[in-house]
Amino acid sequence: MKVVKAGYIILTPKEQLINQSKMIEKAGRTCYKSEDMITDESHIKFVDKLLHTYHHESVIEHSSMTVVFVNDRGVSHEEVRHRLCAFSQESTRYINYTKENKGGECSFIDIKQHLKNPNVTLGIWMDAMQYAENAYKAMIDAGESPQIARSVLPNSLKTELVVTTNFREWRHIFKLRTSKAAHPQIREVMNPLLLELKSIVPVIFDDINPE
Ligand SMILES: Cc1cc2nc3c(=O)[nH]c(=O)nc-3n(C[C@H](O)[C@H](O)[C@H](O)COP(=O)(O)OP(=O)(O)OC[C@H]3O[C@@H](n4cnc5c(N)ncnc54)[C@H](O)[C@@H]3O)c2cc1C
Question: What is the mean pLDDT of residues 64-83?
Fold first, then answer.
């Protein structure tokens, strides 16, 4: 078995993310027929006003960002509750983790940093993961399909989840999932993602801060 770190990759190219506020400006200025005021830099002030003065958030729906999250299945259950996103997720029905070309073993997301008493509980967790992997392999060896054998795999199983949605929904997701009330393992991926986006497209995300 393998223990891997949670993380994310922004699949949308950086340039594309930056250029989206220009598209938002074009869409927004259609409302006021003020396209003649567009300059190379005007999009920043315009989007800032839209968001923070007029709260005219529907206009920022003219955008899209795709991120692949690498986290555990438990966290992915929370991510897929956001209904305005498109999702594609690693399938435990079709992937046979015992096959060499699929890694030959199960991968679990590292939980150590979230444990209150790792000296005691890390060993308990490692044993449980090993037991689950052994059971999965034994079921596959006995002729069960991956979609049936997966029933013994735990929440900690690593998954990859591709999420696409617009900036308005990303803002909503960050408000909910970087708050102290959110699960520590979803904050582990959402907090650094939000911080990175604040540096790429500050005008969209600068008013949201991880707690
Ligand atoms: C701290 C925390 C604890 C949670 N605990 C639980 C729990 O114990 N059990 C549980 O089942 N879930 C739980 N959830 C999940 C939560 O109930 C939501 O399903 C999830 O956060 C998605 O949020 P949402 O519905 O606001 O947004 P999204 O699905 O992302 O939708 C975005 C927004 O679009 C609008 N919208 C979307 N669909 C509709 C619709 N059909 N009708 C009207 N407006 C709509 C709403 O304004 C919504 O806020 C928890 C979430 C958090 C953050």
Answer: 98
